[in-house]
Amino acid sequence: MSPAAASRIPPTRPLTVPVVGGLVLIVALAAVDCPGGPIPTAIDRVLAAGLEKYLHFDTGAGAASLPAAWKALPELLAAAVWLSLSVVFLLRRSLVFAGALLWIGVTLSAAIAIAGFRGWYVSPALPLVVAGIYTILLIVIGRISDRLQDALRLERQAGFQQRMLEAVATCIETRESERVGHIARMRNYVRILAEQLARSGRHAAILPPEYRQRLVLLCPLHDIGKAGVRDAILLKQGRLTEEEFQEMQRHVEYGENLLLGAEWLQDELDMVALAREIIAGHHERWDGSGYPRGLAGDRIPLAGRIVAMADVYDALISRRCYKAAYTREQSRAIIMKGRGTAFDPDLADAFLAVEEELWKISLAHSDTIDSSEGARP
């Protein structure tokens, strides 16, 4: 369920619990053959034994003498149990069990009192069974509702976190006016590349769905360290000098320091570690010639390798202040030329398998509003 879809879920209607719960209750009563099945019969037998022992009351004669108008009393009590417990569930769910115990006491007391004072036997089996079954049902409904509410809250929280991360990353990217669509493209590139790579045997175990979701969520942070790079370098037209390029490379260090300088909760450390892998690894190269640490091969975190390919592809196929956009064919050729040198060979193969889909994403989220310019060959 996406955050957008979750936000469209209508709130629970007050009548849902009593109506649906009542229907399920009827089915449950039919399943236990109430009021004539073994469970109600056992209840009547236990109560009859008590009445005969302590009140010397003949339940058989008491049932036979029960006026016709009173024969509907068990059904009325059962309906009252259903309705009252439904109301308690809606108003104060924690009191449902106490409410059921109260009804059990009231029902038994009423049966004993009627037998003692009027000489009639009104079976309490039906309202007692209803109280027991409906209480269990409401407890189950309550726990399911709590789980759904928790899941919905987490979905909304994840959606909020994603939008906040995108907002922060976009603040950095929009310093470069020609990169306004970069975040949207990167998230989609990373998602598709990770899904394709997960289909292979070697990477399937380390790319479960939850990991891929986190990767897509955090990939916009890959260049957050550019907040520390001077505009004169970040927005320079043309090639950078050696000194300027070294300063540009420090954006990785700046990004890592932003993460390390914050105080994180214990359960956030996994996300922080993944974000750091993305930031620190997305400029490393498979052959060890990248920066900042010169890592090679599998020593480069997989998250960094995936984001690196997505970032390079976007840099190739998109216009930048220092270059024009490469064509689709040129971009594909450059990526595949880097197979085994710049890029993980498995990742390059995954790229080739989904290249058409990536190209369509580059068009859908193009930085330019000129449709003729956006439709690159």
Summary keywords:
0% strand, disordered C terminus, 18 helices, Hypothetical protein af1432, 377 residues, 2 domains
Write the layout of secondary structure elements.
Blueprint: H1 3-7, H2 16-31, H3 38-54, H4 59-64, H5 73-91, H6 96-118, H7 125-173, H8 182-198, H9 201-204, H10 209-218, H11 231-234, H12 242-249, H13 251-260, H14 269-281, H15 302-317, H16 328-337, H17 345-364, H18 371-374
Helix pairs in contact: 2-5, 2-7, 5-6, 5-7, 6-7, 8-10, 8-15, 8-17, 13-14, 14-15, 15-16, 15-17, 16-17
Low-confidence stretches: 1-12, 369-377
CATH architecture of the largest domain: Orthogonal Bundle
Q: In the CATH hierarchy, what is the class of the largest domain?
A: Mainly Alpha
- What is the CATH superfamily of the largest domain? Hypothetical protein af1432
Strand content: under 5%
Count of individual domains:
2
Helical coverage, percent range: 55-70%
Radius of gyration, Cα only, in angstroms? 34 Å
Alpha plus pi helix count: 18
* Helix/strand class: mainly alpha
The oligomerization state is single chain
Largest beta-sheet details: none
Shape: rod-shaped
Report how far apart the termini are: 35 Å
- Mean pLDDT over the full residue set: 83
Describe this structure in words.
The protein has 377 residues and is mainly alpha-helical. The chain folds into two domains: 12-147; 174-374, Hypothetical protein af1432, CATH 1.10.3210.10. The chain has helices at residues 3-7, 16-31, 38-54, 59-64, 73-91, 96-118, 125-173, 182-198, 201-204, 209-218, 231-234, 242-249, 251-260, 269-281, 302-317, 328-337, 345-364, 371-374. The protein is rod-shaped.
